[in-house]
Write a structure and sequence with these properties.
Chain lengths: 316, 166
């Protein structure tokens, strides 16, 4: 899964499949462009004509509300035509392969595919098999990557903290099953965050996670001390095979973010969550709805960031 | 060729706008040079509505050829566009394509009562039916040359001729 598939010989972004291997300039270009799209979404007409006449296919092989909806809104605000494919009721359930589905949609003159799939590498497979004018965005593949979520989190951090160079960021919870965590770690280190911490029980941390340049903590009080940003992850029941955890209640006791645990962080620390939240499992409602929570602004910024990614890809 | 003094062209523009446009106008500058000039005119004419700023990147007609360049700045029109009398300000008026894009963008903020166009330099070469109402100077510039507005650290403006670019 190299970056070459994503970046053309001329150094331009062709597909957005993973943050890994992307240079900071490309990440910053996306974040800067997204800033301009935030101002578009605050106007009377929340639309620009950039992608007029382009056909964008949302291919979601896995359930998603927020990501699919924000991609759809983003595409519509760029004036593209969006088709949402409900894969459960499509030809895939009749045995058509992934690449046959894509070939058929390409014959319908698709310009861009947004792919969410339970298997790691699905978006890469599609990107490797489409023509040069078609762009692919990975909207989450297995446990591997979720680059636009990481980018919108970076946008949120920059919005509230002004930059990346003096920050301590903690990612908390089920790191093992989280494609979001993996993409975030790559984005944070690429953008120059000096200290990235991961906090979780041994059973929910990937082996050798420290090789990604992060500090590992198993204790919330120690891990949250003096951090500027707390990123909570969803406990992914559906990806857990076997007994990794005693119970959701036990998890909350040790790793759930309560006001008391949050008090270990800096007083102006922000709390983020990619959604959907399990209240009372990884996050207490008093924190989720509290003064330091920026969980809903994350969703709003997600639209502008996805507009930026689509706008940049379509022009390259 | 000797280029005119940018500072006196701005003074000339300010005079024209003051005489003909009346007091109830709002300025919208196009990045980058147009915003600089709009800021200066706003000071000189003591206008009360804040200036609007536009980056036309999302409305350009050459997106398919050139893509989205890096460094797009957020557009911001902080006054009510509906029923406003607007003067759109740019530094160099050439093909008219940037102005077309800016007009489209302004209408996405609301329906103004009127829009007039002020340009520091009109270098001819129009490809669209667009005509400025306020002009600092009309100059003959060869197609392979371009003209650029520069601002030094003290905020003083000068014009520069650049050969071999478009």
């Amino acid at each position: 899964m190299n970056a070459d598939l994503q970046i053309s010989a001329a150094g331009k972004l062709q597909h957005l499949l993973t943050i890994e291997g992307l240079p900071p300039e490309i990440l910053l270009q996306i974040l800067d462009t997204a800033r301009s799209f935030v101002s578009v979404t605050e106007r009377e007409v929340k639309k620009v004509p950039l992608l007029r006449g382009k056909a964008i296919f949302n291919l979601f092989f896995e359930p998603s509300t927020r990501t699919r909806t924000t991609f759809e809104i983003a595409a519509k605000r760029l004036s593209a035509d969006v088709v949402n494919l409900n894969i459960a009721t499509s030809s895939q359930s009749k045995g058509e392969t992934l690449l046959d589905t894509v070939a058929n949609l390409t014959a319908m003159h698709a310009d861009m595919f947004i792919v969410r799939h339970g298997e790691s590498g699905a978006a890469h497979l599609i990107a490797r098999n489409v023509g040069p004018d078609i762009h692919v965005i990975n909207a989450g593949d297995g446990r591997h990557a979720h680059p636009t979520q990481a980018l919108l989190d970076m946008f949120t951090i920059r919005h509230y903290k002004g930059g990346f160079h003096n920050l301590r960021v903690a990612i908390v919870g089920d790191i093992l099953h989280s494609r979001v965590a993996r993409s975030e770690i790559h984005a944070l280190t690429t953008l120059g965050v000096p200290e990235v911490r991961v906090i979780g029980p041994r059973t929910l941390l990937p082996r050798q996670v420290q090789n990604l340049g992060v500090h590992v903590f198993h204790d919330m009080d120690a891990g949250l001390k003096d951090v500027d940003v707390v990123i909570m992850l969803r406990l992914q029941h559906e990806r857990m095979n076997g007994a990794l955890l005693p119970s959701a209640g036990e998890f909350f006791k040790s790793y759930g973010l309560t006001p008391e645990k949050l008090a270990r962080a800096k007083p102006d620390a922000i709390v983020m969550h990619p959604g959907p939240m399990n209240r009372g499992v990884e996050i207490d409602s008093a924190v989720a709805d509290g003064r330091q929570s920026v969980i809903l602004p994350q969703v709003t910024f997600g639209i502008a960031v996805r507009m930026a990614v689509m706008g940049i890809l379509a022009g390259n | 060729m000797t280029l005119p003094d940018a500072e006196s062209l701005i003074a000339k523009l300010a005079g024209q706008i003051q005489r003909e446009a009346g007091p109830s106008i709002a300025l919208v500058g196009i990045y980058t040079g147009g915003v600089w000039i709009a800021e200066r005119l706003h000071q000189m004419l003591r206008l009360s509505p804040p200036i609007g700023t536009i980056d036309v990147a999302f409305y350009r007609d050459d997106f398919k050829r050139t893509g989205l360049r890096a460094g797009v700045r957020p557009s911001d029109i902080p006054f009510q566009v509906e029923d406003a009398h607007i003067i759109l300000v740019d530094d160099v008026l050439y093909t008219g394509r940037t102005i077309r894009a800016a007009l489209n963008e302004i209408f996405d903020y609301g329906r103004p009562a009127s829009i007039r166009l002020a340009a520091l330099v009109d270098r001819g070469g129009r490809q669209l039916p667009i005509c400025p109402q306020f002009v600092g100077a009309a100059l003959e510039i060869a197609p392979d040359e371009s003209i650029e507005l520069r601002r030094d650290q003290s905020g003083r403006f000068t014009l520069a001729l650049i050969a071999g670019s478009t």
